[in-house]
UniProtKB/TrEMBL annotation:
Protein name: 4-hydroxyphenylpyruvate dioxygenase
One Gene Ontology term, aspect cellular component: Golgi membrane
Compartment annotation: Cytoplasm; Endoplasmic reticulum membrane; Golgi apparatus membrane
UniProt pathway: Amino-acid degradation; L-phenylalanine degradation; acetoacetate and fumarate from L-phenylalanine: step 3/6
Complexes and interactors: Homodimer.
Length: 204
């Protein structure tokens, strides 16, 4: 799916053992990790390349774990560059630089062999952009997680609330929202707060 400013990629792992994250799919209820893809699509290729290299170097220098350093993939549409860093828990962020790629989506992706004739009858998805992506934490882990984004990825605090502001009679939470310099990527980092019952973070 590719609406206005966001690409949504649905991935099905056929063999869970083939991926370092595959073990999450064998756990009950829900997967425990996810991958966030930050797309830098500026046409200023030289500046973009420098920024990606600088960002990875900064993360390394400040103790960030580099799961996979910068690598390139190429096909007839050009070349895209990738890098993977680990944030809280088993969660990873994959940086994708595709300013020099002009193919369908990323190297290796091809148009479908057959066109689904029912697509023209479906309503628009209505997904113009991703407002935020939440990272829920156990109790007392919110601040260290948000500090990691500020220290390693040059994010800054955008907004924060505590359990006095977000609560019901039974449930409460605390939240720090971090964002990048342009404030186009927002990451609410939440943790549970005491209440009569479990916080919605603990339930979900």
């Amino acid at each position: 799916m590719e609406p206005a400013e966001v690409s949504v990629l649905f991935v099905l792992r056929w063999k869970t053992n083939s991926s370092p994250n595959g073990s999450a799919l064998r756990l009950p209820n829900v997967a425990v990790d996810f991958i966030t893809v930050f797309l830098f699509s500026s046409t200023r290729l030289f500046e973009e390349t420098l920024f990606t290299v600088f960002l990875l170097a900064r993360a390394k220098a400040r103790g960030g774990k580099i799961v996979r350093d910068i690598w390139e993939e190429t096909d007839g549409g050009g070349t895209a560059r990738f890098a993977v860093v680990q944030t809280f828990g088993d969660t990873t962020h994959t940086f994708v630089e595709r300013a020099n790629y002009h193919g369908l989506f990323l190297p290796g992706y091809k148009p479908p062999i057959q066109k689904d004739i029912s697509l023209k009858n479906l309503p628009p998805a209505g997904l113009d952009f991703v407002d935020h992506c939440v990272g829920n934490q156990p109790d007392d882990a919110m601040v260290p997680a948000s500090d990691w984004y500020e220290k390693s990825l040059m994010f800054h605090r955008f907004w924060s609330v505590d359990d006095k502001q977000i609560h019901t009679e039974y449930s409460a939470l605390r939240s720090i929202v971090v964002t990048n310099y342009e404030e186009t990527i927002k990451m609410p980092i939440n943790e549970p707060a005491p209440g009569k019952k479990k916080s919605q973070i603990q339930v979900i």
